Amino acid sequence: MKFLLVFDFDHTIIDENSDTWIVKCAPERKLPNGLRNSYQPGHWTEYMGRVFVYLGDNGVKEDEMKRTMTTIPFTAGMIDLLGFIGENKELFDCIIVSDSNTVFIDWILKAGGFYKVFDEVFTNPAAFSSTGYLTVQHFHAHHCAKCPKNLCKRKVLKEFLDKQLERGVSYTQIVYIGDGGNDLCPVMFLKKNDIAMPRQGHTLEKKISQLAQSLSPVQCSVLVWSSAIDIMSYLKLLIKK
Questions:
Q1: Is residue 40, in this structure, part of any structural domain at all?
Q2: Of 20, 24, 161, 177, whose CB neighbour count within 10 A is largest?
Q3: Residue-range definition of the domain harbouring residue 90
Q4: 63 labelled binding-site residue
């Protein structure tokens, strides 16, 4: 009996958006209007690439970025939840699927002491160039019209489950924990026995309830959370069954 926990990162594990938090490193802690207004829907990764160039051009170095990023607060109750999962790793496989990037997530998880809680992290690859600039790439290519062009979380989840099956690993239940609009696509992939846990008051909860109102509800169960303690309470019930 093994459970798969799938986490989003921004506004789920941490209580902020890591990509907008990095702007604290910019001169006067803000971006010029031209850069801010250059974002086009579905092309966030390209936009962040331009933000990182701007930071590099203004002499913002890796250590300053790291110092800033590791001050992001975890969501209420999340430290307790991740500690609980860490203590029960024989029951839980745990992955992150996020539109952030590898550098930010590694820094934050390692600073919090939670790096080993997660089996795999699926996010946009990032690295510092030889000139000290942070660069970011698309996670993958896909054909899903519903998702931003750099990442379809449903595709990630499906490929992970297929790979696990090849290794002889299948899950009693998938628990999907997220908040954003891009979490709806993987939630719609979940089956009757699985559970989606949208964060209260965020886009994913609203989208799931809109589907229910239009009489095309998601197949899985839905349990809303406001503190990660709510998630921990559910997991404790799950492993008692």
A1: no
A2: 177
A3: 2-18+71-239
A4: no
In order, the DSSP letters of 121-177 are: EEEE-EEE-TTS-EEE--S-----TTS-TT--HHHHHHHHHHHHHHTT---SEEEEE
Give the predicted TM-score (pTM) of the model.
0.96
Q: How many domains does the chain have?
A: 1
Q: Is 57 annotated as belonging to a binding site? A: no
In the residue annotation, 162 being an active-site residue is answered as no
Is 10 a known active-site residue? yes
CATH at 159: 3.40.50.1000
> For residues 161 and 70, what is the distance between their CA atoms, to the nearest angstrom?
31
Residue 93 lies in a domain: yes
Confidence band for 216, pLDDT divided at 50, 70 and 90: confident
10 is known to lie in a ligand binding site: yes
Q: Which residue among the candidates 8, 93, 183, 230 is catalytic per the annotation?
A: 8
Q: Is residue 52 part of a domain?
A: no
Annotated ligand binding at 80? The verdict is: no
Q: Which of 10, 183, 194, 230 is catalytic?
A: 10
